[in-house]
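Subject: Sanity check before I submit

Could someone independently write out the structure tokens for this chain? I want to compare against mine line by line before I put it in a report. The sequence has 436 residues.
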Amino acid sequence: MNIVMVGTGYVGLVTGTCFAEMGNDVTCVDVNVNKIEALRNGIIPIYEPGLQEMVERNVSANRMHFATALKDCLEDADIVFSAVGTPPDEDGSADLQYVLQVAREFGQNIKRYTLLVTKSTVPVGTASKVKAVVQEELAKRGENIHFGVASNPEFLKEGSAIDDFMRPDRVVVGVEDERGAKLMRRLYRPFMLSGERMLFTSVPSAEMIKYAANSMLATRISFMNEIANLCEVVGADVDEVRKGIGSDTRIGKSFLFPGCGYGGSCFPKDVKALVRTAEECGRSMRILRAVDEVNEEQKNVPFKKLQQAMPELAGKRIAVWGLAFKAGTDDMREAPSLNLIASLMEAGCDIHVYDPVAIEEAKRRLGDAPVTYCADMYEPLIDADALVIVTDWKQFRSPSWAVVRKTMRGKVIIDGRNLYDPEEVTDAGFIYKRIG
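---
Independent answer below. Compare away.
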């Protein structure tokens, strides 16, 4: 099939590449000329395990192409995916200007039946707006071309996105008619050979499923962080509590690990957007408001624990392990590390940081901030008064405590991801503080 993917961000590039891997002819479109030129030269703008190799393979096989204008790619297109950004406005609502611009260009240029599928995370009701814009542009042209509108939300986890896409636990498709459903069945059939996992719904339901799923996961995270903070007060062990409730099949074990808050491109934005959507409908999402508030407070917990362990922070050298919002990605959007670094700078600390893949992204985001970037995980520990772990990279899980003790000047370790056995760390001579 001939597929056009508008938007070469995280979702668009991963999705387009995986479709090409299954033998489709895919053209990825982006108005950013520099990004398209970089992609043509094999430079991938994001870090995702396995993506670089897959893009190179499909470009070499002539199944993957890059362009800067949608109008140049529509003649043979069967399906156009809209995977452009929906950044939050100041009130938390999703900014749909890029989604509607794709719809406008689609309506201005299609010449035969084509299916327009929204891949971006958008509020319920967006498909109706997209359809109206396309019809408006066709009317301006005096054309009566049939087209389809569908919603196909993504459920990719950064760090394992390719595996998620190639072996999905479900594919949600919101469609208006059987013609669109038939095209989507054909497109996803190669991914369903081990068993049918496609769920066809109405378009509004598909739009809501994405927001509801992310909001539920965010709720579990904030809930466990609240439980962890209470465990500290009452003397309970949050790991024991987590295992106790996770063994209940009605609850399950996923997303019950306490930490220093969630970040990334999805959870913070989608929770706020769903709250805003409800407000526009005269409803109040009280639980999700609390989820968001708890998460923002949780991002400051590592610094507060550091303050408790070291009341005089001015001039202290602090080592930070992890900058990305989670392991497996260089994404620092809404990352807890940003809150920590801001607080450390305000306290007058000497900050030394390490992350396996997010150093360049940190430099871009932090600019001229007084931060020392290190080449390996032990370098920031040299003469450090304290170590704060923010991201749960695997290489941080089994450090040599003998090396850590010999390298550091101080003894304080703040673990924002509960990676270690407290007895093991304290036996090694450290003052160890974790979440819960």
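---
OP: Matches mine. For the report I'm noting this point. The longest helix spans residues 203-234.
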